[in-house]
Amino acid sequence: MTLLEHTKNAPQAWSGNLPVTSRYTYGLAGERFFRAMKDEGKIMGSYCPKCDHTYVPATVFCERCLGELSEWVDVGLVGELHTFTVLFVDCDGNPLEEPELVGLITFGDGGIIHRLEADPDELEIGMPMEAVLKPKAKRKGSILDIEGFRAVSK
Amino acid sequence: MGMRKVAVIGAGMTKFVRRAQETPKELSWEAARMALESCELTMDDIQAVCMGTAPDAFDGVHMKGEYLSDGAGAWRKPYLRAFVGGGTGVFTPIQGWYHVASGLFDVVLLVCEEKMSSFYPHAQAAFVTIFDHTTERPLKPNLLWIFAIEMNRYMTAYGINKKDIARVAVQHKQNAANHPCAMLGEADITVDDVLNSEVLAWPVQRLDVSPVSDGAVAIILAAEHVARRLTSKPVWIEGVGWNLDTAYWTNRDLAYPRYVEYAARQAYEMAGIQEPRKEIHIAEPYDPFDYKVLHHLEGLGLAERGKAVDLYLNGTAAPDGDMPVCPSGGLLGVGNPIAAAGLMKIAELFWQLRGEAGARQVPGSPKKGIAQAWGDLMQVGTVVIMGR
After folding, report:
1. Residue B1 forms part of a structural domain
2. 3 state SS for chain B
3. I need a labelling partner for B249 at 20 to 30 A (CA). Which of A52, A67, B135, B162 fits?
4. pLDDT tens digits, residue range B192-212?
5. Is the residue at B290 inside a domain?
6. CATH no. for residue B330?
7. ipTM of model
8. CA of B69: which chain A residue's CA is closest?
């Protein structure tokens, strides 16, 4: 039984919703991070010399010491597959036509959660994976400017 | 009571603005960093973090306490978000107070943040979801409704007119002209400006209301033995109180905030204050709307019922009066990023009692102040008394 099926014994219901529409700013770090991705095709991190820690995606502050981070670094497009999952149902409980892959790719001391373009049987934790970026003209300054990650071609 | 003495030793505050470029966590970080710098501490000195922030819908991140935690310095520290709606900004220091007073921690960082501009097109619509889903929400109520209904009741019960109430908005916006973080400071505003502003929900007009704002404030609390080592000017938290009235706004006394009175009684008793009108030198009551200040001053026992407006008419509430009210400029003048606006009142008392309030400094070396906020479903009162 999926989450959407109703029983005939269910109590009478009143329908409503919590309407929330947001217009977010990118923020000080996001503005710079997504411009670098959109315009230059780069994934940027930021380095805290005091804590010797590299944040990816880049932030303007170090969460450990609250120091301001001015040292930004290009961490490249290849990270390491830290872990992954294979999705079989959507968030309403409906079965997916095709299973989907989602993984955590580490860069510096952080990482990016994204879709994986791969055959699950080929995936090995610890393998290098590369970000596949949309063509520059189609990039909008979004995490979806990365289409997904795939195994580094040999 | 077996509790330790607790002092405020540092404070930081971002500008309050209509729409900040910073993300909510970046705003939190800016305020936290300023608070640390103000008392020359680092995150290594902070043992726990308290976060205050109001409805998740504003920032547009559900469970935003967790979302904000890195900006607030919560990394690998005991951390808890307090939330009592609009009362949050004065409740968070109460939460911080018992963290320290209990002996659990010696130094605690408190951060309050709100970014209301994320909600699109206007944050007011976020409030429709706080009402009962079957009895009230189908009527599409918002906060202006509540305030308008309550204001009308208050005016009618005591025979107070809008022209006199407008003096509150004028005074606070004038005070805010001296606050470097203020968004609506106006030195030349007049009663006529208020009375001629757009009617939103009668009797509430545009300039009777505080603005939707983005901003953050942070303070640092320390136990007595640490505070005395770090500063020659600790400002003590001498009394705290909080109280909740019925959740049914149809069942409350709309002309008198009983919940504020009960919260204030708790705080006065703890602070050993028997005659508030003589012993309190500065008041920072919650002022999201002008009449609300009057309501709250009466609940705090700082004026007779229906008579708080006299404090504005006779000059008592002015910055150079006998009991300055909202010398900061309050929510009406500085701005109203909900939780941050409440903590701003604590920061203001800290600066005023230390003689560090710059152009806003009230004369006479004030020794005791009271801050109060109000919220939840309009029925919680939170009160803090500070002294030196």
Report:
1. no
2. CCCCCEEEEEEEECCCECCCCCCHHHHHHHHHHHHHHHCCCCHHHCCEEEEECCCHHHHCCCCHHHHHCCCCCCCCCCEEEECECECHHHHHHHHHHHHHHCCCCCEEEEEEEEEHHHECCCHHHHHHHHCCCCCCHHHCCCHHHHHHHHHHHHHHHHCCCHHHHHHHHHHHHHHHCCCCCCCCCCCCCCHHHHHCCCEEECCEEHHHECCECEEEEEEEEEEHHHHHHHCCCCEEEEEEEEEECCCCHHHCCCCCCHHHHHHHHHHHHHHCCCCHHHHCCEEECCCCEHHHHHHHHHHCCCCCCCCCHHHHHCCCCCCCCCCCECCCCHHHHCCECHHHHHHHHHHHHHHHHHCCCHHHCCCCCCCEEEEEEEECCCCEEEEEEEEC
3. B162
4. 999 999 999 999 999 999 999
5. yes
6. 3.40.47.10
7. 0.91
8. A63
